[in-house]
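Students often ask why we bother predicting the structure of a whole assembly rather than each chain alone. The short answer is interfaces. A chain on its own may look different once its partners are present, and contacts between molecules only exist in the joint model. In this exercise we take two input lines together and write out one structure for the complete complex. Read the inputs first and try to guess which parts will touch.
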Amino acid sequence: MEQEHTRPADIERNSMNILTAEMEQRGLAVPEEYAPVVKRVIHATADFDYAENLVFTDHAVEMAVRYFQKPGSVILTDTNMARAGISRPALEKLQGQVDCFMALPEIAEKARAEGITRAAASVDYGTALYEDAAFAVGNAPTALLRLAEHIQNGYRPALVIGVPVGFVNVVEAKEQMLSLCRSLNIPAVLAMGRKGGSNVAAAVCNALLYTAAEMLDPADRGWN
Amino acid sequence: MEQEHTRPADIERNSMNILTAEMEQRGLAVPEEYAPVVKRVIHATADFDYAENLVFTDHAVEMAVRYFQKPGSVILTDTNMARAGISRPALEKLQGQVDCFMALPEIAEKARAEGITRAAASVDYGTALYEDAAFAVGNAPTALLRLAEHIQNGYRPALVIGVPVGFVNVVEAKEQMLSLCRSLNIPAVLAMGRKGGSNVAAAVCNALLYTAAEMLDPADRGWN
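Now the answer. The structure tokens for the assembled complex follow.
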């Protein structure tokens, strides 16, 4: 096997070149501001649908990057899977952190007591704990719906990454969040339609973190 | 919101009904033996391509289920993300375990010293540690290629879940593994083509674990 196939940074650079060329061939034009996010999601899924599914509120990337460049930024995910996929080196460089409350016993208890999902209970917990966290929802539409309620009650997340996946309530939850974030000028990245997932949530976070930390070239991430 | 939208077990049951109906509409017939795996992957991705991409070696599901029903089964993943996505309740019920070596300092060191990827170094580590683990590869084709080398040298994994995603070496690595597993009668589930991911690896594992643990109905998983 050639050397370029065994060095992770080279593999990623090759992959990005291939998918960029293929996006052009397919006529999938993406504004430069969004390209790092869109390409990283396609890189994570090999699914070019995301070139059309991903929507951004005005200046979402710029506002997200500015948020992550301030030390003390917080990403809250709705799965431990997404949490595990978010780049530790980038968070360390930016002095940010990621957390997920889904497995806490008090979340299970709260969910049972209130007849809500653990994902919704986690959103309650996160909005109480942090004044302006970034919420990354890759799985549960109920998390997105609950976050929308908090926003309607005055909460202002620093960023909404809304990419839950599925067949029940997912499309509607994303549409509601998009119009809410647009009307209130809250930065949001959403995968419209049914598609998404924890891997997509992590990819969106990483693209934004790498941009904020100036680690877009894979060699800058130290595992070359 | 209706009650059925807030209870996770009901959401999952509804989702499975919707996607089953839609598979029929699309003419995507899947043999009954494979249906739980295929449906769980579509549930995790909302991507019906997997009804055609996923291939199984003969009796793969039956052999995998038998392996997981023996106490002491081991799943080794190539990402901590896939590890985080695999059902703890199912593993506990089956007395199985999951591990991922990617973040161990000795893996980074071995990879540097030998000029291989951490994913390949993890496969070396796993094959040395376990006589017959299940390998779940959702990210790195180099892990699959390395595992193929070990198989050619006589190693026999209990199961190969080969669903790496990407644009470089991914298609070839899966094709090589498929013919290898077919010729040696090693149970394997592979997502042919470029698509896959840690979420897909976790979904395949969970479908097999839930079948083995008789937890296919979501209410049996205790988080209803």
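Check your guess against this: The longest helix of chain A spans residues 8-25.
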